[in-house]
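Recall that a protein's primary structure is simply its ordered list of amino acids. Everything else, from secondary elements to tertiary packing, is in principle encoded there. The following example makes that idea concrete.
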Amino acid sequence: MKIFTTKTELSLQDIATICLRHDTAKLRELRLKRYYRGEHDILRKRQRANNAPNNKIVANYCEYIVNMSTGFFMGKPVAYSSISENQDELDALQDVLSYNDEAAHNLRLAEEAAITGAAYELLYMDADAKIRFQVVPSEEIILVCEASLEENVICAIRHFRVYNLDGVTYQEYVDVYDKRDVTSYAYDSGALRVIADARPHYFDDVPVVEYENNKERRGDFESVITLVDAYNKAQSLTLDDMEDFTDAYLVLKGMGGTTGDDIAELRRNKVLSLDEGGGAEWLIKNLNDTYIENIKTRLQKDIHKFSSVPDMSDEAFAGNATGVAIKYKLIGLEQVRSRKERGFKQGLQRRIELIAGMLKLKGVADIDFRDIEITFTANLPSNDAEQAQIVKELYGLVSQKRLLSLLPFVTDPAEEMEELQKEQESMTGGEASDERGILGEAEHGAGSSMAPEKPTGD
């Protein structure tokens, strides 16, 4: 949740008012998470009269959409490099990221944002004075920002519950993070009570970072929930009709004197004796199977179309294996990924800025967050031979670090260049020649086909 105000500081009453507003606003995030878990509205369908069939089928397209879009976007770890090639500052940053298992953490952030439209992380110092960051459920965070073009964050409020051991009763708490301190309160129906006085968090700004899924902060499946509900209903009613068909009625004509005992004997003996002019037939409900399947097929296509997540089980999709064709079929998902990347990159830059401030305060390193280049790689089936050919064709036109970043199996171009340099030095017994460059030298000395021969003049 994100709100705007013209105030520069919030009073206790302001915080209580915001929390009351949050009590209602967070219901949206909770509903979206419920749908992701497969707890759809169809499960609350009322029982039909006379114990009639009442199937409640859940086709969890919501989970499928989130998992596919998240895997495509963040299935491969984010790569970092230093624009100024300052390896010391990059190593200091990587130490913090590795300590927090950043790759797994980013995947959780991307999943949270894909479900609710935005994800949040909290940076803090652990008991060993190490920098840590943790994903906080989106329904617990309120960002209070200036009502200005910059939308600077004034403070972050974490409004959360802690359940007792019975799993039913709970106590609500509120933590308020401003630019210097964090203050803790107990919360009860709009009333706040201080339980921990302001204490420093040591970061040089509000230590909560937002990662937007898109500009509107909408979840990946939020726009197709009604279509998913319709598909669930169609599937459930189809099975209801099938059971109704199985429970068909036997119609006896000209046998009005038939009793319950007669029916029981008929079931036992499997023999039916009819008077002259009498008859028997099943009364069944005619099912227009083609019509029903057409409706469900149309719903399926609309779900995939409007969520921009293709059906990977589609035979036409699976049978077309060329790289260009696959990219065309994933063009919608690529548009979703590009929007995610922009919002996520802003969050990562903010995270690095906070980490840099803390490392400078501790005297570990002086990092300029603007010097750190962030590279995302789509988790797409790649043709390594095709990518290597592209690198060969671009050799001499693009920097070697950039060429290495184009290869899908290289996650750290700077580290790869350093390792390649060491290999060349060990092979030549000294400093590797820089006349051809690392990539060119690798091809000449190690027999690699990564880069073509550099043309020589007369």
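Confidence is low (pLDDT under 50) at residues 442-455. The chain is about 45% helix and 20% strand.
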